[in-house]
Amino acid sequence: MPTYPPKNLTIATTGASGAIFLRHFLQAVDGDDRIETVNFIASDSALRVMAEELNLKGRSNLVDRILSRRPSRKIQVKSNADIGANIASGSYPADAMVVIPCSVGTLARIANGVAAQLIERAADVSLKEKRPLVLCVRETPLNKIHIRNMYRAADAGATIFPLIPAFYYRPASLDEMAREFAHRVLAHLGLPQPQAFRWKG
Ligand SMILES: Cc1cc2nc3c(=O)[nH]c(=O)nc-3n(C[C@H](O)[C@H](O)[C@H](O)COP(=O)(O)O)c2cc1C
Description:
- With 201 residues, this protein is of the alpha/beta class.
- The protein has 7 helices and 6 strands.
- The longest helix has 15 residues.
- The mean pLDDT is 96.
- The structure holds flavin mononucleotide (FMN).
- Flavin mononucleotide binds next to α2 and α4.
- The site of flavin mononucleotide (FMN) has 16 residues, from α2 and α4.
């Protein structure tokens, strides 16, 4: 059974818009001592989007540049081509997986069991082992294929957690908006953040 709250987290990022959400999610995870191990995978398309949105080019020191602070000790980078990586097997004790942002292409592959690369394989393993899988899907507008695939993934056990931020706490910046979204995803996994906004009614 996976540990709750998760100590061993898999984080994948794909070629959907919203790299700033990944940055804040990784920063929060890196700073949360309850999380001991992180396996991180970026698809090739994620790099293309990060070049546009975060002005990051190439794969060298990718995590440190996304974090834009000191090197992380616990975030291990895996190649999306390496289907022999630890997280490709159900025998590896991953506790939960988050795909942020999740493209509708990756959603389609996960929802239909196409596990050719590590991101989809690790997601497939999460579902078969009944471990939490959170898909932060981003696309607009949605066609019926996207909607069907969200239904299929949710029906198989995934949580569809669309990249739709809240506005009622009146975020003063994009960073604040993305940070708060990261806090919501972590709270959903059983890792509430002390500095998160709490609605008091
Ligand atoms: C700047 C940019 C923004 C994109 N935004 C989205 C998006 O919001 N959602 C999406 O599903 N695809 C988006 N795409 C297209 C995906 O990157 C593309 O479909 C890619 O094949 C997805 O590959 P992956 O799922 O392996 O990462 C975008 C591409 C670029 C270059």
